[in-house]
Design goal:
The structure is a single chain. It is built from 13 helices and 18 strands. By secondary structure, it is of the alpha/beta class. The protein folds into two domains: about 150 residues, Rossmann fold, CATH 3.40.50; about 300 residues, 2-Layer Sandwich (Dihydrodipicolinate Reductase, domain 2). The protein binds 6-O-phosphono-beta-D-glucopyranose. 6-O-phosphono-beta-D-glucopyranose binds next to loops. The site of 6-O-phosphono-beta-D-glucopyranose (BG6) has 4 residues, from loops.
Length: about 500
């Protein structure tokens, strides 16, 4: 089958001197170049305040490609051919009058490279510029489509709370149509996240079971072993709820809970996801007190190595009460999910980096076989592993050969790595190509973003007005506050722990 190619265009990256451009965007576009997926006539214009020339920008980007592009085709000849597509313009991005220079440069590129006035703008800048850049572009007429491509990709964070997200949407929609706006959530670019739709809707045997009658509860985990690294300044004003839950985890909740769309098409899918958000039971103060747990990592030794606590990190307030971990129980109050708890958690400095959705089915109505070591008939478990070791795992009971009916839990296990010849594109690679093609399925729609802020806003408000609400310390290398186990309903039920605590120091305390 012929690959669909995007129309000829210029990709303009604002914030081109930043880390995201260097580590993710340019390496991903290079991967697209190697896959021959870029438009026939294509150029990239990096825009930022820093004074690079085309050459020095190319040199820096070459270095990013060598480190971060998918390894198999990084050879110097390919890199040097690709670099011919890269250009740079230094302007004051917060200065409206500088945008005439940008327009001039784009017109010149159109005439040099025949890119036909088609522009895709990528905002990889500090969020305070998100309302300004689109407005300044519009002042130069660079928003008006008139048969041309005029699209904007906006990185997260999309707002810092419900109010600011609404304001940002409103300001963008004064000069652009919803169809021109591509709100990035890189989780949606992950192949395994998209596979959740296929697992559910291409397999006849899951769908009849995918509801309150057969599913006991659902767990979603996104843990990281890294701390805040060099992002302390940003993170201390954000915290795990804004950084991970409002966006990435909510995407996973929607994909696991949504109804089948009538077609695989952007708005059909996004409508169904929106309905999930609308059905999530609003958090009352009592719910927050009993169903939301926040934590912050403490200094500890992990495999013998000392690790500093969150409050010692660069850019973080020494008395910070920002959460680096959050776990919660929520309900999707609709026909399919009524009464089924969804447990979600995310945290930094945990024992390992893992993202997974775990579907716990109800046990059989009668326990016919005796439980024995290694087998407790708690029901089948389906693990949709997003990373690492992407794949699907189904835990089932099997008879141990020999006399009697001894049962053992075994895994039916698929790993993406088994598809040896299939190239799995990275998240940014996939999402950038989709935006070039004009496919917004894997981007967030404005109404859904507002709805997800609506869900987390009561928690932000509660923490804000009750600064002494519990914040639990957990040692680096542990699975977060121990009390998070108590969220899970049912005797002896806990979170699934993909690996053991790695912390040598078992200090859990209330901060
Ligand atoms: C980002 C968050 O959106 O997602 C980071 O800002 C987090 O704090 C990252 O580390 C996690 O993404 P991934 O793809 O590594 O799971």
């Amino acid at each position: 089958m012929m690959k669909k190619k995007p129309e000829d265009q210029v990709l303009v990256i604002f914030g081109a001197s930043g880390d995201l451009t260097y580590r993710k965007l340019i390496p991903a576009i290079f991967d697209l170049y190697i896959q021959k997926s870029l438009p026939d006539r294509f150029a990239i214009l990096g825009v930022a305040r820093s004074p690079f020339s085309d050459d020095s920008f190319r040199e820096k980007m070459a270095d990013g490609i060598r480190q971060f592009a998918s390894k198999r085709d990084v050879d110097e000849e390919n890199i040097s051919d690709f670099l011919n597509l890269l250009f740079y313009l230094s302007i004051n991005t917060d200065e409206a009058s500088d945008y005439s220079k940008l327009k001039e440069r784009l017109l010149k590129m159109d005439s040099d490279y025949d890119t036909k006035g088609n522009y895709l703008f990528y905002l990889s800048t500090p969020p305070n510029l998100y309302p300004l850049i689109p407005k300044f572009l519009a002042e130069q007429g660079l928003n008006s489509e008139d048969g041309k491509i005029r699209r904007i990709i906006i990185e997260k964070p999309f707002g810092t709370d419900l109010q600011s997200a609404k304001e940002l949407n409103a300001s963008l929609l004064t000069d652009y149509d919803e169809g021109q706006l591509y709100r990035m959530d890189h989780y949606l670019g992950k192949e395994t996240v998209q596979n959740m739709l296929v697992t559910r809707f291409a397999n006849g045997f899951f769908e009849p079971l995918w509801n309150r009658n057969y599913i006991d509860h659902i767990e979603i985990t996104a843990s990281e072993s890294l701390g805040v690294e060099n992002r302390g300044g940003y993170y201390d004003h954000s915290g795990a709820l804004r950084d991970m839950v409002q966006n990435h985890l909510m995407q996973l909740v929607a994909l696991v809970a949504m109804e089948p769309p009538s077609v695989i098409e952007s708005d059909a899918i996004r409508n169904e996801k929106l309905k999930v958000y609308q059905a999530i039971r609003p958090f009352t103060e009592a719910d927050i007190e009993s169903n939301v747990i926040r934590g912050q990592y403490l200094a500890a030794k992990v495999k013998g190595q000392p690790m500093q606590g969150y409050r010692e990190e660069k850019g973080v307030d020494a008395n910070s009460r920002t959460e680096t971990y959050v776990a919660m129980k929520l309900f999707v109050d609709n026909w399919r999910w009524s009464g089924v708890p969804f447990y979600i958690r995310t945290g930094k400095r945990m024992p390992t980096r893992v993202s997974e959705v775990v579907v716990h089915f109800r046990p059989t109505p009668l326990k016919l076989f005796p439980e024995n070591e290694g087998y407790v008939s708690e029901g089948n478990v389906l693990v949709l592993r997003i990373h690492p070791d992407e794949g699907i795992l189904l835990k089932t009971g099997m008879k141990i050969p020999g006399a009697g009916y001894k049962v053992k839990e075994v895994n039916i296990d698929f790993h993406y790595s088994q598809l040896q010849d299939t190239y799995v594109p990275g998240a940014y690679e996939r999402l950038l190509l989709d935006a070039m093609l004009g496919d917004s399925t894997l981007y967030s729609r404005g109404d859904a973003i507002e709805e997800t802020w609506e869900i987390v806003q009561p928690i932000l408000d509660y923490w804000n007005s009750n600064p002494d609400a519990p914040l639990y310390g957990y040692p680096c290398g542990s699975w977060g506050p121990e009390c998070a186990d108590s969220l899970i309903e049912g005797e002896n039920k806990t979170w699934r722990y993909p690996c053991k605590n790695l912390s040598d120091d078992g200090i859990y305390c209330e901060l």
